[in-house]
Amino acid sequence: MQYRLARWMGATAAALALCACAFLQPVETAQKMIGSPQSAVRDTFGKPTETYQLAAGTSRWIYSKQPLGFEVYAADFDASGNLASFRQMLTEKEIYEARPGTWTKQDVAQRFGLPREPVQYYPLMKREAWSYRLYVGAYMPAHFSAYFDDRGVLDRTMIIVDPLGGDDHSSSK
């Protein structure tokens, strides 16, 4: 009886440790899973916030931590349904690959997920803005915005540093 209990506790501790790693270091955890089936990714990271079919039978699962978090992760699967890559999408490198005049709302959604902040419309500019929170530089909180014209084509992108400095906007007085 004690052996079974100890074995069960050991298995439970191992599962909890795996969950903690997936939560605290998702990219590092996923890199060890490259080649694993979708079921293993779902077991480790849970249900994705969005899924997209991409070219040549590949697919992408989005794991968004927005609106309060600063990350959006993409799990890309090959045509056989095995994990091919897993990365944080809200980085300056990824954002600078956006193509104004070419990309549509669908392209932005597939790259960064749907916005979790309220969508804004600026009537004088005739532009809709999707906003995401991210870190730039040395963990400086910022907002990334994608602006679309009335046809749904990406017009411009913008990164603005958050002058209030992140999550805790209250001051202790």
Attribute tags:
173 residues, alpha+beta, Beta-lactamase Inhibitory Protein, Chain:B, domain 1, four-stranded antiparallel β-sheet, 5 helices, 30% strand, globular, disordered C terminus
Query: How far apart are the first and last residues' alpha carbons, in Å?
Result: 57 Å
Order of H and E elements: HHHEEEEHHEEEE
Task: Please state roughly what percent of the residues sit in beta strands, choosing from under 5%, 5-15%, 15-25%, 25-35%, 35-45% or over 45%.
Answer: 25-35%
- Number of DSSP E strands: 8
CATH topology of the largest domain: Beta-lactamase Inhibitory Protein, Chain:B, domain 1
**CATH level 1 name of the largest domain:** Alpha Beta
The biggest beta sheet reads:
4 strands, antiparallel
CATH architecture of the largest domain: 2-Layer Sandwich
Q: What's the number of helices?
A: 5
Q: Can you tell me the number of structural domains?
A: 2
Strand order, main sheet: write it out.
1-2-3-4
Radius of gyration over C-alpha positions, nearest whole angstrom: 19 Å
Q: Percent helix among the residues? A: 25-40%
User: Which blocks of ≥5 consecutive residues have pLDDT under 50?
Assistant: 13-23, 169-173
Mean pLDDT: 87
By helix and strand content, what is the structural category? alpha+beta
Basic shape = globular
